[in-house]
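Operator note (shift B, R.M.): manual run for Glycolate oxidase requested after the automated queue skipped it. Running by hand, logging everything below so the morning shift can see what happened. Input copied straight from the record, untouched. If output looks odd, do not overwrite the archive copy; leave it for review.
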Amino acid sequence: MPEPDAGVLARRREIVAAMRAIVPGEGVIDHPDGLRAYEADGLTAYRQPPLVVVLPETTEQVARVLAWCHANRVKVVPRGAGTSLSGGALPLADGVLLGLSKLNRILDIDYADRIAVVQPGVTNLAITRAVEEQGFYYAPDPSSQIACSIGGNVAENAGGVHCLKYGLTTNNVLGVELVTIEGEVLRLGGRGLESAGLDLLGLVVGSEGLLGVVTEVTVRILPRPQTARALLIGFAEIETAGQCVAEVIAAGIIPAGMEMMDRAAIHAAEAFVHAGYPLDVEALLIVELDGPEGECAHLIGEIEAIARSNGAVSIRASASDAERASFWAGRKAAFPAAGRISPDYYCMDGTIPRRRLPDVLRRMGVLSEQYGLRVINVFHAGDGNLHPMILYDANQPGELETAEAFGADILRLCVEVGGVLTGEHGVGVEKRDLMPVMFSPVDLAQQQRVKCAFDPELLLNPGKMFPELHRCAELGRMHVHGGAVPFPELPRF
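Run finished. Output pasted below as returned.
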């Protein structure tokens, strides 16, 4: 991370006093014990207490905090619920941590337009809970949905087990209220399906807090499908399970969700949740179909046939909503279940083409033997979004570093086969130094120019995403040869 600015550290009392003037009462935390609660996000291997924590309750307070920090050259790290797994909310020793947990109200629900307007501190699951009595729900459902906030979902472009059919956060957000580092309040998108002009909304979703602070989100809500049924399909080999996934999609079938777990994950989840998973298989697919009852019945038959042709050793269809929920309960509890079998684990994500699943899973097994660390595989198989969990013990010298090296090789493998570094966890600190594996220096410079357009002083969440963050003036330099600039006929701004 960037070296702390000694001048800012020396001004700590002044900064805390200014924050208290903007956010009175209990909205400012500066005691060391209180700061400890904010020293890390879900990537707990990295810890750093912030300079001060500020918990505003209104958009106006957010704008005033940002404007003061901009005027006084103080860095700001936005934070939602702290469930990020890439270190995206890792604080700075010389920065204000801007927590948005108190902006937690549902502002409007419009069933006719099928939208909900919420503040960023509202949890993902709370949106569905608020609309389910009227037969609606919010489709993106990360495994952390009981805790993760919608603002964090926007920052990381979160997905979940149903993103295969219904898309990621970016496909379900219609508009945001965004506060710039200068304190200006902007509205991007709105209540309609399309907006005129540049797609700045698409730029902000997934920007990891580098461009602005979201203080309001308009999301799409969907009617509950008439029928939803799930299949548990067991395989004797993980490679044949991967081949089954590829063939289902190739057949033109788009399930609502399609997840895979390997043997270690199956056993860990079953011991934790008792979902009724088969324990004599090497891989388990959970496939959910939703829609009209006749369509679901037909597609279940199609998928069963494809599974049998790929050597499935067990197939079980849910007979009730309760049984379907139990199938998913094990999958959604896979991450905490891993904590029962290992002192620590490193949960990461990378995305690959579906057709490369069998090869990548095999090569991941080779890497596991090479590094001497176990890996549990739980992932969104339908869209190739891997979530390997590398098991290690932080109390053993060198094991964290070995786990990180193992994870880096998995991500290099993802890029090698035509995939990308992340599907929904974001880049943050975790993947920052791997960005050159996927992007050229020109690519990275262009991305940094976008950052500079929103945040010229580089005060918002610095140290994240970019392996080498240039000053904006450096990115604006051009080559001058013989006293002549390139394309002299173009106007210069």
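Quick read of the result: The longest strand covers residues 227-235. The mean pLDDT is 93.
Leaving this for review. - R.M.
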